[in-house]
Amino acid sequence: MYTAIDPSTLPSVSDRSPVREPILVDGASQLFVDDHLIAFSQSVHRRLNPPRKQSTPFLTATHPWEGNSILYSCVLPHDYGYRLYYKAKN
């Protein structure tokens, strides 16, 4: 024997919040600039410090083949440290 169910008594699909998979952060440091990794917060204010321009460049041309301008740079992890790649132009 089967029992009939009134469909109007069932919750609609739009009433349910979507099920999301957990985000694995693996103990790594996180920069919270948005709410992507934050499920809930109360009485918390996010404040980002403004950037400061340094008075001297952190990278200057020291060899003749580097020219007189460092256009851009990129720091990438390498082995047990980092490498800085940069574009120099005369």
Could you outline the blueprint of secondary structure elements for this entry?
Blueprint: E1 69-78, E2 81-89
Keywords:
90 residues; mainly beta; two-stranded antiparallel sheet; 0% helix
Low-confidence stretches: none
The geometry reads as elongated
Q: How do the strands line up in the largest sheet?
A: 1-2
Oligomer kind: single chain
Give the SSE order as H and E letters. EE
Q: Biggest sheet: strands, sense, closure?
A: 2 strands, antiparallel
Radius of gyration: 27 Å
Helix/sheet category = mainly beta
Number of strands: 2
Strand content: 15-25%
Helix content percent band: under 10%
Q: With helices defined by DSSP (H or I, 4 residues minimum), what is the helix count?
A: 0
Mean pLDDT: 80
How far is the first residue's CA from the last residue's CA? 88 Å
Polypeptide structure, described:
The protein has a domain at 59-90. A two-stranded antiparallel ribbon has the order 1-2. It contains no helices and two strands. With 90 residues, the chain is an all-beta fold. The model has no long low-confidence stretch (mean pLDDT 80). It has strands spanning 69-78, 81-89. The radius of gyration is 27 Å and the shape is elongated. The protein starts with 68 loop residues before the first strand and ends with a strand. 0% of the residues lie in helices and 21% in strands.
In a nutshell, what does this entry contain?
With 90 residues, the protein is an all-beta fold.
